[in-house]
Task: inverse folding
């Protein structure tokens, strides 16, 4: 009776109750890829999404008449799963504009135009940067993206901050600042004293090398015609009409270690044999698990957090910087906007710039009134590209840190010592619960490609488990040595 009473209370906010083989929590790229893969294997799925849209951290909107990609957008050559999906869906990409000179603002704010891959720093600074990049490339190749925690040097690298590691490599402050742009500001969006050297190496290894990360022509190669969110929209369109339920935040997952679960959302209650939780780790605590997750999971999730970034969009009547022979690309280690790029849309006559204000700089900007923040950011853009940058026709700031169902950007990363301590367990299933998001990826970590890989992996694990009658393991997320007694997984007693 106790279990029935609890179920009844939870169901008060849900007008419907349904059953399926697998329920997926989250309709971002990972969740939709999981549903797509599961349905191709003949399994029924229901996707529950808290937002009123699909796409997760990819989101496109028309703001004041301008099409803006508010979330993730770029496609690089190493993102092969994403590229294959785009081809399968018949979707096109276009190259980021990169003709002309780039701009570098040095530590003193002096403006330099340059071409080529390396910043126009002093000969000594360039030599130090090249040496450190080489060292990071060697570490990334040796450690790899799959199991960085298993490398002999893992704990040593994971218990020192990236800032400390850089200081151990060179006394050249400009070299350290320039290297940090690409990881602290450009990728992990945390100060370089807030993440470990091992986390930095994983970021590099996930992209193939650190050299790839510092090559904006590689990592920011192409965009999807129609925006990256349209990939999720196309996957959604390929699923049965009622199988994706929007505006349905999941509040409770009642699960049985032997198999089966009941998922309670605001609009729907779903009983399923397996569950894919396809949201970032910082949101796991938004869900009540009954029984509670194992201690290891509780501890691990407390050591993962999002970074912070303001993605700035400025749209102009024309891409005026091109008239000056500039690519629109700019870097400045001590600027408010440490990175600037031409983000003009496909076949658009207007010009769009995108700039990024990360971590502690974002804190400073958010402490200002909106108009003062806008003025400070536009003056930073003008330092790169001239006074015309001060007067955009459209100005917009993407702030995923304020999004209830994201709470940061771009992805969660571990604190100091967390990756080597918990990394091996982050993708392990717990009973019928499976985890999938870009934050857990090896290749494609914190990118759409990584989300697709993790959604497909979780789905394939479920298909294998159901086809082979494999057990659900113990409460620590590891499969047990004995095959569990087989019962109807939907007949779950939560009392």
Result:
């Amino acid at each position: 009776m106790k279990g029935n009473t609890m179920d009844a209370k939870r169901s008060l906010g849900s007008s419907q109750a349904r059953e399926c083989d697998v329920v997926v929590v989250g309709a971002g790229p990972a969740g939709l890829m999981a549903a797509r893969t599961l349905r191709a294997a003949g399994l029924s799925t229901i996707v529950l999404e808290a937002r009123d849209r699909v796409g997760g951290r990819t989101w496109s909107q028309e703001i004041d008449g301008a099409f803006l990609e508010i979330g993730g957008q770029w496609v690089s050559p190493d993102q092969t799963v994403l590229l294959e999906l785009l081809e399968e869906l018949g979707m096109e990409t276009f190259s980021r504009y990169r003709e002309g000179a780039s701009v570098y603002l040095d530590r003193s704010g002096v403006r330099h135009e340059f071409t080529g891959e390396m910043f126009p720093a002093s000969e000594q600074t360039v030599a130090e940067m090249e040496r450190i990049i080489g060292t990071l490339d060697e570490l990334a190749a040796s450690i790899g993206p799959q199991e960085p925690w298993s490398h002999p040097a893992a704990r040593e690298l994971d218990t020192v901050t990236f800032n400390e590691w850089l200081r151990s490599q060179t006394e050249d402050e400009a070299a350290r600042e320039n290297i940090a742009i690409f990881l602290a500001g450009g990728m992990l969006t945390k100060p370089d004293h807030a993440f470990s050297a091992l986390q930095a190496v994983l970021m590099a290894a996930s992209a193939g090398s650190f050299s790839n990360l510092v090559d904006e022509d590689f990592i920011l190669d192409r965009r999807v015609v129609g925006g990256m969110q349209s990939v999720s929209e196309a996957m959604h369109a390929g699923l049965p009409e009622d199988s994706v339920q929007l505006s349905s935040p999941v509040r409770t997952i009642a699960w049985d270690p032997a198999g089966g679960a009941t998922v309670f959302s605001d609009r729907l209650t779903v009983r399923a044999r397996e569950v894919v939780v396809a949201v970032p780790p910082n949101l796991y605590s938004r869900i009540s698990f009954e029984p509670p997750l194992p201690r290891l999971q509780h501890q691990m999730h407390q050591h993962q957090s999002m970074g912070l970034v303001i993605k700035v969009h400025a749209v102009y009547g024309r891409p005026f910087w091109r008239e000056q022979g500039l690519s629109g690309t700019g870097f400045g280690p001590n600027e408010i906007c440490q990175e600037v790029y031409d983000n003009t849309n496909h076949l658009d006559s207007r010009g769009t710039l995108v700039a990024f204000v990360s971590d502690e700089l974002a804190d400073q900007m958010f402490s200002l009134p909106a108009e003062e923040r806008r003025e400070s950011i536009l003056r930073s853009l003008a330092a790169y590209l001239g006074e015309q940058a001060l007067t955009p026709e459209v100005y917009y700031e993407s702030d995923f840190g304020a999004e209830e169902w994201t709470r940061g950007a771009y992805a969660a990363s571990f604190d100091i010592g967390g990756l080597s301590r918990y990394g091996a367990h982050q993708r392990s299933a717990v009973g019928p619960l499976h985890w999938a998001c870009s934050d857990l990826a090896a290749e494609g970590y914190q990118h759409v490609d990584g989300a697709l890989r993790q959604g497909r992996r979780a789905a394939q694990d479920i298909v294998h488990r159901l086809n082979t009658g494999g057990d659900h393991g113990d409460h620590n997320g590891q499969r047990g040595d004995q095959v569990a007694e087989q019962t109807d997984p939907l007949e779950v007693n939560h009392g």
